[in-house]
Design brief:
It is a single chain. With 722 residues, the protein is an alpha/beta fold. It is 29% helix and 19% strand. Strands 21-22-27-28-29-30-31-32 form an 8-stranded parallel β-barrel, surrounded by 7 helices. Strands 13-20-17-18-16-15 form a 6-stranded mixed beta sheet, covered by helices on one side. It has a 4-stranded parallel beta sheet with strand order 1-2-3-5, covered by helices on one side. A hairpin with a 2-residue loop joins strand 17 and strand 18. The longest helix is centred in the last third of the chain and has 19 residues. The radius of gyration is 27 Å and the shape is globular. The chain starts with a helix and ends in a 9-residue tail after the last helix.
């Protein structure tokens, strides 16, 4: 057993001689943090706000080795090294007592870890998806949380020094291959480990208790109506399933097969069951479905293929049940009649600030579709980058898709999507009944394009790509015909790529602060004269934006058959007929809703006080350091009422849908997207789908738990700060 105690010393000897040694990360300048690969910290480490851990995780982006063995820290905070994909080695403080939840989530280069004898607890999901981890040494008896080492598929050796098994959960080592992983315990302790929860799986396949789904405790969003049909009768689901579906539902049949196979993977199957998929156009809504569990299988009937798909997502949750295992044993006989409250349920991703790899977009589509979202809004351009290939202007991606830095993170950020990739994404998303809505900002948030084509802005100014958040005064010039030529060609190519009937035009923060860019521009003055504007100050500049919007909107409608969308600002004195406006600013939702009623327009609700998921969910939650974001607790998202106190007429005639936004200034890995999106994204899904009168927050929390447990089992991160 002496080899175990030598491991930290051997790891120290492996440290390169050029490691930087400081008490705190803050002693390094920004360039040193960005260049740091090997850090030795010796102080009492800070754990809140812009702490040593936040700076190691977000500013030391090349960090490969963190030696904390000479530092003092009783508790590593939650998310301490969350999704640091370059991290190879960590030496923990010798006085550490607690490791927070998801502290090393998806550190998928980490190969060994030693838990010191001082350690008392390891949080839920702490090392989940560390799929390169080969050796785990446990020197004491810490409590090991749920899914703490789940997904560590490369684990070959777990060494323990205590004859008493550390307290572990059944799911602590979920997904490991016990046939390839050796458990080394002190002499004479094997029998104790063989009987201990969490450790017994190393000796034999863990046997799960027989579980019957409780449908009232596991479905999100809450269905409109559910009736239990058979008393105590159930359908045993661990069977060989036949899928009966017409050719028109071939996509849904494939989705069903994938869903069932994923749930039943590794299960012993007995008997047969049939899943019948059909459509019935007489159902009351295009997305409505009926799901029946009967003695021989399950029948799902949708008004359209989309309805069938949503029924399948409900079936998946019934099979998951309380998530004590990937699949339950039985589901009670029941009938569900369901349809959505709103018909557009959207999440927005922002690859402009931090690029999102193409394959990650696909993964996110599959995850959001589980909760019956049906639109992915892509914010493709902003001051910080241009992310979509435009063949008429290849220099946009050649010169404006790469930069170094996002606020205090001096990290290279580069990448763009080809048109073929976007067509592929559109087709993939369609198989999940998700439409992809592109956004091209105008007239503000266009610095990346102006950097490449200075003639787009007043005075043809040469401006660098922005590397911080905030608002630029450099706007597209409405008095220059080149602006309309440029936008016309861009939207023409987008219309060919994205079949969605909607295109988002941005429109925000161009008049807030006021449009000074246009005040002293000769071309804008000439346009003012043409429009009959006699003022020389900026008070009537909003009319120039209206002129620009009117021309672009006309092009989108007449040439491409698209419905324009834009972010609502109080500067807009009128909403152009047929457009969809978005309520987003804190405190202005009622003003936006009243403007929609006044203009007989439709409105998408994504109010910042409920729907901005890039904001932290609780004090100390990621992102710990930001530009003044408020907290958006889970309950605050759930409490959103889409009627906004304006009655049924408003909801029937003006409400377009609901959206959650994920601006990426502080989202610097793909995993962080999921962390910020969930569980608030599940709450918002229920806001958009379920009847308002049936929703209760305590009941939602009860039904949410299995969904989050299932996410941990599947290696999908989410915030636990609620």
């Amino acid at each position: 057993m002496t080899r175990i105690f030598l491991l930290p010393l051997l790891s120290l000897l492996l440290l390169p001689l050029h490691a930087q040694t400081v008490e705190h990360v803050a002693e390094l300048n920004p360039q040193q943090k960005a260049a740091a690969k090997h850090l030795v910290l010796t102080g009492t480490l800070t754990t809140t706000g812009n702490s040593d851990f936040r700076q190691m995780r977000d500013l030391c982006w090349q960090l490969e080795c963190a030696d904390l063995s000479r530092a003092h820290c009783a508790a590593l905070p939650a998310n301490a090294f969350h999704s640091r994909h370059r991290l190879l080695r960590v030496l923990l403080p010798q006085d550490v007592e607690r490791i927070g939840s998801q502290a090393f989530f998806a550190c998928d280069a980490l190969q060994t870890i030693t838990l010191p004898a001082t350690l008392q607890s390891v949080g839920d999901g702490a090392f989940n998806r560390c799929n390169a981890l080969q050796t785990l040494v446990v020197e004491g008896t810490p409590q090991l949380g749920a899914f703490a080492f789940a997904g560590c598929t490369a684990l070959k050796e777990v060494r323990l020094t205590s004859p008493t098994p550390p307290a572990a959960q059944t799911t602590t080592f979920e997904g490991i291959d016990q046939a390839k992983c050796r458990l080394l315990v002190p002499a004479g302790a094997e029998e104790a480990y063989r009987k201990a929860e969490g450790w017994s799986r190393f000796y034999a396949e863990a046997s799960a208790p027989y579980t019957v789904c409780d449908p009232s405790a596991c479905l999100v969003p809450l269905p409109a109506s559910m009736t239990l049909d058979g008393g105590s009768k159930t359908l045993r689901v661990k069977a060989k399933w036949l899928i009966d579906a017409p050719a028109a539902l071939a996509n849904e049949s494939r989705q069903a097969r994938s869903l069932i196979d994923a749930r039943l993977k590794g299960c012993s199957l007995h008997g047969r069951a049939t899943l019948t998929l059909r459509t019935d156009s007489t159902l009351p809504d295009a997305e409505a479905y009926t799901l029946q569990v009967h003695s021989k299988g399950v029948s799902i009937t949708g008004a359209t293929a989309a309805g069938v798909f949503y029924g399948l997502q409900t079936l998946d949750q019934l099979l998951r049940a309380d998530a004590s295992a990937a699949c339950c044993d039985a589901v009670p006989l029941l009938t569900i009649d369901d349809q959505p409250r709103t018909h557009v349920r959207e999440l927005m991703l922002d690859p402009a600030r931090t690029f999102i790899p193409f394959d990650e977009l696909k993964r996110f589509v599959a995850e959001m579709a589980r909760y019956k979202y049906n639109a992915l809004h892509l914010h493709l351009v902003d001051d910080q980058a241009w992310r979509i290939e435009i063949k008429a202007y290849p220099e946009l991606t050649a010169k404006a898709s790469a930069r170094v830095g996002m606020d205090d993170m001096l990290v290279p950020i580069a990448g763009f999507y080809t048109q073929e990739q976007m067509r592929d994404l559109v087709a993939y998303a369609a198989s999940y009944h998700v439409q992809v809505v592109p956004e091209i900002e105008m007239p503000g948030h266009e610095v990346a394009a102006i950097h490449v084509l200075p003639q787009l802005t007043c005075g043809a100014k040469q401006v660098p790509i922005r590397t911080t958040c905030g608002v630029s005064n450099e706007l597209l010039c409405p008095g220059n015909e080149f602006t309309y030529t440029f936008l016309g060609r861009v939207f023409s190519e987008l219309a060919d790529i994205f079949p969605s009937p909607y295109v988002h035009l941005g429109g925000d923060e161009a008049g807030n602060p006021a449009l000074d860019c246009w005040t002293h521009c000769d071309r804008c003055r000439a346009l003012k004269h043409q429009l009959g504007i006699t003022t020389d100050d900026r008070s009537e500049n909003w009319r120039l934006q209206q002129y620009l919007f009117d021309r672009v909107i006309d092009t989108l409608r007449t040439k491409h058959g698209k419905t324009p969308m834009f972010w609502y600002e109080t500067d807009f004195k009128r909403i152009q007929p047929g457009c969809v406006t978005f309520s987003w600013r804190h405190g202005l939702t009622r003003a936006a809703a009243e403007a929609a009623v006044r203009n007989q327009a439709r409105i998408m609700f994504c109010p910042g006080e409920h729907c901005y998921f890039d904001y932290p969910m609780a004090q100390g939650d990621m992102p710990e350091v930001n530009w003044g974001m408020p907290l958006i607790p889970l309950k605050q998202t759930y409490d959103l009422d889409l009627a906004w106190g304006m009655g049924e007429d408003f909801e029937r005639h003006n409400l377009f849908g609901v959206a959650g936004t994920l601006w990426s200034e502080c989202i610097n890995t793909p995993e962080r997207i999921y962390y910020q999106a969930f569980p608030r994204g599940i709450a918002l899904a229920e806001v958009g789908w379920s009847p308002q009168a049936a929703r209760r927050y305590p009941d939602f929390l009860r039904r949410l738990r299995p969904a989050l447990t299932d996410m941990q089992r599947r290696g999908v991160t989410h915030s636990m700060a609620f």
